[in-house]
TrEMBL record:
This is Pyrimidine operon attenuation protein/uracil phosphoribosyltransferase. SUPFAM superfamilies: PRTase-like. Residues 8-159 form the Phosphoribosyltransferase domain. It is an enzyme of class 2 (transferase). InterPro entries: PRTase-like, PRTase_dom, PyrR_bifunctional. CDD domains: PRTases_typeI (cd06223). The keyword Iron does not apply. Its EC number is 2.4.2.9. GO terms for molecular function: uracil phosphoribosyltransferase activity. It comes from Mucilaginibacter lappiensis. Keywords: Glycosyltransferase, Transferase.
Length: 169
């Protein structure tokens, strides 16, 4: 039996959402010299890279891509990062993921920066599902999607070898 999938965003719509998020980030940080874009692996990092590419073309500030790998099934924070967290001191950090569901992944991502005095910490997601169990909000979201808890959102990106799309199943 085939599983039914409902197309939420196609490739063009994803591009539009990411462009809008990039412009919102620009407006929020116009006076900055540099911002750090921290993507949660795997798809959050792909989205962060796309946002960086857009910002590099429109923003007067520079941006640097950081990667965070989280053990999402763990009950404690277990993160691998590709940077020295102290380099983030007194800088703006944008934490990026593909989907905000319960908020656990973003909460763990935020915890990476808890011991560092940041200038600003913002969150960006492509899809905000509104099923938060953790006190996490998004500053920049492509789409706020009201779903039932049993439904699943699949973000498929070109980096995965398929055409960009977001499905609800």
């Amino acid at each position: 039996m085939s599983e039914k999938k409902l197309l939420i965003l196609n490739q063009h719509q994803i591009e539009q959402k990411l462009d809008r998020i990039a412009y919102q980030i620009l407006e929020d940080n116009f006076d900055e010299q540099e911002i750090l874009i921290a993507g949660i692996l795997p798809r959050g990092n792909h989205i962060a890279q796309r946002l960086k590419t857009i910002l590099d073309g429109i923003a007067p500030f520079s941006s640097r891509l950081l990667s965070i790998e989280l053990e999402k099934q763990s009950s404690t924070l277990q993160a691998k990062i590709n940077f020295d967290v102290q380099e983030c001191s007194n800088k703006v950090v944008i934490l990026v993921d593909d989907v905000l569901n319960s908020g656990k992944t973003l909460a763990y991502g935020l915890a990476v920066f808890l011991d560092v005095p940041l200038k600003k910490l913002r969150t960006a997601v492509l899809i905000d599902r509104n099923h938060k169990s953790f006190p996490v909000t998004t500053d920049f979201a492509g789409v706020a999607l009201s779903t039932v808890i049993k439904e699943h959102v699949d973000v498929v990106l070109d980096e995965d070898g398929q055409e960009d799309a977001v499905y609800l199943r």
